């Protein structure tokens, strides 16, 4: 789909997908909004968190959604991790109070005064979709508590498959009563945001993403994953598996890329 075929807008250029033939139309922001509008979504994030939260917020605004963005302050054991919490019809972001990230969030329009701040764990507990974007180390340290706060038939969303590898190394697996999906932008958080903004002026700008459905308990997982990717502004989204994603990512970042720097 080129810009002209999709109405000639920069936004339309970000609705291009490479997905398996599964008998459904190409996703659009209308599709994405219909996926999320009845969901309570929590996004907990580190590097990717702020970028993804802002992209999701802006995409919903373009789609003329009445969903608003809310920030949630964390007062829990996640001592060194930035958190972004998002839920519908209110999208929420949680950050460590007093941190630089907290100040940056306020500068972006998330404030206690306008009612866009709250408690992270109360939000997580009732969420239909948890986008877990905290660091690998934080996932390894906190996965048991995270799982214990997720309700049955909710969805765990990841942007890196490390947690699967960690669980496999311990002979464990994800809880059987939740779905597990991934949308993995092929760039770091600042680039995800910068190219999304650039894409408003230049057709095709944005970060491509892979998506995976690792576990689907109620048939919603694929739609949710594709809706998430649309809202991030990915020009192309291609299918993978969670295991393939984390193995290729670790090889690229820990093997090939590090060796390249050494050679340089």
UniProtKB/TrEMBL annotation:
<dbReference type="GO" id="GO:0009099">
    <property type="term" value="P:L-valine biosynthetic process"/>
</dbReference>
<dbReference type="GO" id="GO:0005739">
    <property type="term" value="C:mitochondrion"/>
</dbReference>
<protein>
    <recommendedName>
        <fullName>KARI N-terminal Rossmann domain-containing protein</fullName>
    </recommendedName>
</protein>
<dbReference type="InterPro" id="IPR013116">
    <property type="entry name" value="KARI_N"/>
</dbReference>
<dbReference type="InterPro" id="IPR036291">
    <property type="entry name" value="NAD(P)-bd_dom_sf"/>
</dbReference>
<dbReference type="InterPro" id="IPR013023">
    <property type="entry name" value="KARI"/>
</dbReference>
<feature type="domain" description="KARI N-terminal Rossmann">
    <location>
        <begin position="17"/>
        <end position="240"/>
    </location>
</feature>
<dbReference type="GO" id="GO:0009507">
    <property type="term" value="C:chloroplast"/>
</dbReference>
<dbReference type="Pfam" id="PF07991">
    <property type="entry name" value="KARI_N"/>
</dbReference>
<dbReference type="GO" id="GO:0009097">
    <property type="term" value="P:isoleucine biosynthetic process"/>
</dbReference>
<dbReference type="GO" id="GO:0004455">
    <property type="term" value="F:ketol-acid reductoisomerase activity"/>
</dbReference>
